[in-house]
Amino acid sequence: MITLYTWTTPNGRKPSIMLEELGWKYEVKPVNIGKNEQFTDEFLAIAPNNKIPAIVDHDAEGGPLSIFESGAILTYLAEKSGQFLPESGPGRYKVLEWLHWQIGGLGPMLGQLGYFGVRAEEKTPAAIERFTEESDRLLTVMDRQLQRHPYLAGDEYSIADISCYAWTVAATTFLGQVLGERLDSKEALHRWLETLGDRPAVQRGMKIPG
Fold first, then answer.
1. Cis peptide bond N-terminal to 10, omega within 30
2. How many CA atoms lie within 13 A of 102 on its CB side?
3. According to the model, what pLDDT value does residue 210 have?
């Protein structure tokens, strides 16, 4: 049994999609970040950075194991299941490249754009321009890769796609008002979004927590 601590954010959707893809039983414990529930002592013991998502694998070798950071969670689940990440060879590192690309680039830049371009009451034009340009550049990198391959790491669906999906949905919905026409030309990216969005496990994972 796995306990998933999560909330309705792009990072929070990653492990729920993965767990739905695996078909494993898991318990969901919502952590309402709007109410600062991520700062409770209980959650801090699991996630030292006070950020969702986090998991506890109660069936881990050696006893219950807590893991925080979405990329680490996806890698752990992939290795434990033997799915969505090759065990070795070039294919493994292509998946890890794009997984870390999302963690270090796409997520942080879209997150900053969401704050400065949408949520901030006082708008800062220079910050909006900076994060709009960089977000568009990253989405262009993604689109270019998807012009050559059906999935981010090549021919197979992987944790790299799972990692990027919810953030890219946010880019085309919540951030659509900021990115505007920049999204129109990214046909391969939209094709990929549709392909992943048709997967039943992705649809279920995107609804957790309800």
1. no
2. 26
3. 80
Find where tokens 């998502």 sit. Answer: 53
pLDDT of residue 90: 98
SS (H, E, C) the chain: CEEEEECCCHHHHHHHHHHHHHCCCEEEEECCHHHCHHHCHHHHCCCCCCCCCEEEECCCCCCCEEEECHHHHHHHHHHHHCCCCCCCCHHHHHHHHHHHHHHHHHHHHHHHHHHHHHHCCCCCHHHHHHHHHHHHHHHHHHHHHHHHCCECCECCCCHHHHHHHHHHHHHHCCCHHHHHHHHCCCHHHHHHHHHHHCCHHHHHHCCCCC
Low-confidence ranges of the chain (pLDDT < 70): none
Query: pLDDT of 38-91, one tens digit each?
Result: 999 999 999 999 999 999 999 999 999 999 999 999 999 999 999 999 999 999
* pLDDT for position 162: 98
Q: For position 14, what pLDDT does the model report?
A: 98
Q: Which two tokens stand for residue 195?
A: 């392909």
